[in-house]
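Write out the 3D structure for:
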Amino acid sequence: MSNRRAPLVASAVIAVALAGLALVSCTAVLSMIRANDRVAATREVVTSYLDLQGAVAGEAFAEAGYRRAPSPAARVRLDDAIDAVDVAVQEVRTIADRRDAATLSDLELLNDRYVAEVRATLDETRMKTGDDRVAGPALDAMQSLLESAVSGHRTEAMRSIDRQEVVVDRLTVVLPTAFLLAFVVLGWTWRMVLLDHRRLRVEAAESATHARTDTLTGLPNRSSLREVMDDAFDRPRTQAALLFMDLDRFKPVNDSLGHHAGDLVLQEVARRLLETVRAGEVAARIGGDEFAVFLPRGLAAPAVAARILAAIEQPFVVEGHEVSIGTSIGIARYPEDGHDYATLLKVADTALYQAKQAGRGRVAESSRSVAGTGAAVPA
């Protein structure tokens, strides 16, 4: 009787094992299919976001073209570019999930602000006498918002690929003998998954680096500067300073020589800042023609500001043209003027405005003093 039961028990065990293997295989396959669907959907959203980035860039390019050569045709191109951004936003809405709603709403608000600022400065008088900083911050904020959204979706796709990799690892342990033929297909699938995983990991790493670095100048960006300052503020007995600077006479460079020449000037400004600061000091581009220098040891802030003024006042040679610009600098100190990044930046921005009002090419320290190269004026 026991001899008869042995084959039955063995068959039952084999049947259960095969059923278990089949269940594991089906579950794994379904999990991989769902992960592939998520990756495909994410890539579609990322592609739409990239198209939206192109529309925003086209809007800025059309604005620059109109400012260089105002004409009815140029105004039509600018209006068309503005409309193209709205169309691109709606296209993203049709395929993005609910988590993107807030990002798209913020983007529409920023674009409305940008369009309003642009249209408010399109007459010739305002174009000739307007402030250097017209709509750059809104453009930078829109690009940063889009880059953050793309980075988030790519990270989500990488997580899906990571889950695929875990499933494949389990399959290689559970099915080595029962599914010999499946190993051929599995090997091919593993190779594809591994290649996608590596590619997405590289893209995610590049996106993370891009999110912390200004792509034009290579300097740390606003987010990176905030992290550096927060780390410094966590250390006891910190006496730091934030120098907030804005280039003087920079807008005419863009208007007369074009945005490419302006970009070359910004890159040279970044290089001179890096030569001016010392170890432990951080130079960053905040956006447009605005830069900042953070000094963990802020006692030398006036001396550093003076070196920066001297460095920026030296002529720039851009595509065979000699260009002269300058800068104004506002200084805020920690902890006297504030205890966090946002407060110090606001104080430094107010001081920068005071420097501009005093004649530009000057340094202002919160509300205490304003000084130029060789002159001092009460704030």
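Strands lie at 240-248, 282-287, 290-295, 316-318, 321-323, 326-334, 362-365, 369-372, 375-377.
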